[in-house]
Amino acid sequence: MGSIWNSSEGDLDCSSVFEIDISAILLDDSPAVSVSKISFASDLLELSCSLFNGDVLLFAYETNKNYQPDVHELTGKMGSLELSSTNVNKQTIDISDRGPRNVRKGFLPQLLVKPMGNGKVTALCNSNIGFVAVGYESGQLVVINKRGNVVIFSEKLQDSGLSIPILPTSIEFGYGSPSETPLTSGSIFMYVGTSVGRLITYELVGDSKNRYVVRFINSVDCNDHEITNIIPIDSTTGRPCQPNIQILNSLKDGTPKAVPLVISASHNDIRITKLGTKMAHKSYSKGELSNIGITGTRTPNGNVGFCIVAILGGSKKLITLSLPGLVEMVNMRIPYRIEAKYAEHSSTLPMGDVFIRITETEAALVNIMKTRKPVMGLETTQNSDSLFLKTIHVPFRPAANSLLKNTPNLTYDHLYRLLTNREKVVSRVEDVKLSWLVSPYNPANYNLLGSGKPKYYDPNAIHKQVQVESSISPGMNTNNIGASFQKWSKSASNTLQMTAGKVQDFAGETNEQFDKYVEDTKKSIAKSLLPGGLGNL
Asked: Which residues are in the Lethal giant larvae (Lgl)-like C-terminal domain (predicted)?
């Protein structure tokens, strides 16, 4: 089962969570079809996920052409003409008929990519321009063009000079100029990080018929350990340069682009390269660096500045580094007790937020750029975001939904039967009847007790203040109430401060002395109140 969680903190009108039942799509509920990696293309609303058995599923958010909410689940499965097609010996299999019939619009399955004996998936990237790159534990690198659901590149990474295998561990797409020559039109690049710390750069070259081929550009040994993160950025602005459809169209028009800088990170260090040349480098203790990301904020002069955010899971710190020199600017403590092995699954969002995975089942959103107020805190009393209705009035007894057909309101006898699993015994003792007449649970006594029916909170008006009906005694001077209570509050506050300063002195003395002091304090409060407004009420 896969889920997408909304971290907008109420900024969006919809708070729905998308769920994809992979076991129902593949007709297999074994542990081998559990999700191991996920890659999301936000511009195209496409999602790719790899499974522990080596399969890769490609999804797209679209309207379901086979939407039939009244069709039984088994009937829908039997209606698939390719019910057993996932067992054929093909690398790419169309599974668009496997979408759930009861979903009108959502992430629907499109393509299944088989491992073809290459083992588990070690790297996965779904780009915003229609290309999906997959790396396997055998060293095989596969690129799929979703425009035709075809494999355009399949090659095994190897080096005759190394006795150990080379595995792709991280993949990212970027764009920019392939040389320092001025007015050079840009290209689409694919960066592949490997298990030996080597960064390999490929170029995707297309023709007039939108047919693409992948061509090797260069490779550089830039990191001390396997590369876990790759971030291409613009060398002039520092802005991340992941391509999208708009950028792809501008490249076809021959618009000049800047040379990209590539940030690559392992669990030990961070490196910046440019056209295969090493530049800045930052080292950490072995295994201390969990994840990196790039974020930005608007400066006072109106420009947007970018920096690198490094998550150190071992020392539980967030560090911001400058670009391109990797100079440490801020070092802050993570306000959670995180586990280092889960911190590598954290993510840095582009608007100043860091999504930190704390434990196996817990994550938190931390804002490091102060671009917005947190949801909970002393300074957010006027914030529009609400987690719950703080001032809601709960009715005095449970009630069922009276809109449902033949559903009566819940009575005291029904609740008694629900809690005790037996009928309520009607007592014939006269004392029981007399006690019920004076019981606060008797609805007839509500007015006598002074707790009239409150105005219940309207859930659709989140920002309204609850008002409760209250009555004031006719003989009470309402003009003196505010002044009297203000005087009492001030006197009580001064007395409490005086008491707080002397509690430590009395703590070691006998109880009689402490009780005497408390009694004297009460008398002093009474003397200050009686001559005032309360005495005139």
From this structure: 33-403
Q: What is the pLDDT of residues 430-468, one digit of tens each?
A: 777 777 777 766 767 766 655 554 444 344 443 334 343
CATH architecture entry for 287-382:
Roll (2.30)
Q: Do domains 132-283 and 287-382 have the same CATH topology?
A: no
Written in H, E and C, the secondary structure of 411-426 is: CHHHHHHHHHCCCCCC
Residue with tokens 């729905």: 16
Distance of alpha carbon 489 from alpha carbon 367, whole angstroms: 39
Between the two ends of the chain, the Cα-to-Cα distance in Å is 68
Residue 159 has pLDDT above 70, yes or no: yes
Three-state secondary structure string covering 434-453 = HHHHCCCCCHHHCCCCCCCC
Q: What is the pLDDT of residues 367-380, one digit of tens each?
A: 887 665 544 444 44
CATH fold label, 132-283: Methylamine Dehydrogenase; Chain H (2.130.10)
Question: Are residues 291 and 348 in contact, defined by beta-carbon separation less than 8 angstroms?
Answer: yes
pLDDT at residue 525, as a whole number: 54
The answer to whether 63 and 122 have CB atoms below 8 angstroms apart is no
Element housing 491 (H / E) = helix 479-507
Phi, psi of 504 (to 5 degrees): -65, -35
> Is pLDDT at 535 greater than 70 in this prediction?
no
The answer to whether 11 and 27 are in contact (CB under 8 A) is no
Q: Are 191 and 230 in contact (CB under 8 A)?
A: yes
Q: Which amino acid is at 193?
A: G
Rounded distance, CA 360 to CA 362, Å? 6
- In 352-418, which ranges are E strands? 353-357, 363-367
Domain boundaries, given as residue ranges, for the chain: 1-114, 132-283, 287-382, 388-471, 480-536
Distances in Å between the alpha carbon of 100 and those of 72, 92, 247, 376?
11, 21, 34, 39
Nearest-CA neighbor of 257 among 267, 249, 265?
249
- The CA-based angle 86-91-94, given to 5 degrees, is 50
CB atoms under 10 Å from CB of 137, counted, come to 17
Name the average pLDDT for the chain.
76
Token digits of residue 111: 């393509």
Statement: residue 144 has pLDDT above 70: yes
Chain CA centroid to CA 336, Å: 15
Asked if residue 395 has a cis previous peptide bond (ω within 30° of 0), the answer is no
Contact between 172 and 242 (Cβ < 8 Å): yes
Alpha carbon distance 339, 360 (integer Å):
9
Give exposure, 224-242, as e/b (b: 16+ Cβ within 10 Å).
ebbbbbbbbbbbeebebbb
